[in-house]
Amino acid sequence: GGPRPLPGQEVSVKVLGALEDGGLVERDPRLIFVPGHGDVVQALELGVPTMQPGEVSFFLAAFPYAYGRPGSREPDVPPEAPLLFEVTLLEVRDGPDPKPLPPAVRLRLGSQRRERGNFHFARGDFAAALRSYRLSLRALDGPITAPPGPEEEEELGEQRVKCLNNCAAAELKLGRAEEALAACEAALRISPDNGRALLRRGQLLAERGRDAEAALVLRRALELDPANKVIHTELSRLAKRQSSASST
C-alpha cells in the first residue's frame, strides 16, 4: 500500500539475488538508494520505482541489467550472468540531498556513491562512473545538521579528494583533459600535497606544453615520493624536451 517512489525519493529495500543455479550471491536486509543515481544495478533502478511499499517483487535480470558482461568479484557473479532478484520495498521517503544531514550520514552517502563509481569504472563505463563520483561530491558537500568534529571534518576532506581524483581519471578516459585538470586542481585546493593529484596535474600541464609549471608540480610530487618511477620518467622527459628546445 502507499504511493510508488517518485523521482528523487529515497527507498529502502530488502534484496536477495541468485544465479540461475539457485546460488545466492547477494543478500541485503536494508539497501538504501535513490533510483536514478546509479548506486545499484539497473534492474533495481528500473524495477523498484514500479513497486508500492510492502510489495514483494521478483525481477529476472539479463546480464546488461545486472553486473554486465564482465560480472563481478564482490558479489561473486560470473561473466554474462543473469540474476533473479527478490525485492521487498520497505520504505519510501524524500531524498536526502536537499536536507541538512548529520556528517556521518553525508559520509555514508558519499562513500556509497564513490564505491558505485569505482564499480562502473572497473567495467569501463566511464560516463556512469563520473556520474556516481559527482553524486558522491554532492552528498559530501550538502548541508549538515551540526558542525562536524575534527575526525569527521578530516574524513569529509579525504573523501572529497578521492572523488575529485576519481573524477579526473574518468574525465581522462572520456577524452576531456581540461575537465580532468580542473578536477586535479580542485583536489589540490583541499589537499595541496596529494601525490596522486600532483602527478596527474603535472602530466596534464606537460601535455599542454606548460613545461615550467609542470616541472614545478612534478618536483613537488617527487619530494613527497622520491622513489616514484613515474615521476622520475616524467621529469626526465621534460628535461629532454627543454634541452632540445634550447639547442634549437
In round numbers, the mean pLDDT is 91
The CA-CA distance between the termini, in Å, is: 78 Å
Poorly predicted runs are none
CATH class of the largest domain: Mainly Alpha
Largest sheet: 4 strands, antiparallel
CATH H-level homologous superfamily name of the largest domain: Tetratricopeptide repeat domain
Instruction: Give the fraction of residues assigned to helices.
Output: 40-55%
- What is the N-to-C succession of helices and strands? EEHEEHHHHHHH
The geometry reads as elongated
Structural class, from secondary structure content?
Answer: alpha+beta
TPR repeats: 195-228
EC number: 5.2.1.8
Domain PPIase FKBP-type: 8-93
Keywords: Isomerase, Repeat, Rotamase, TPR repeat
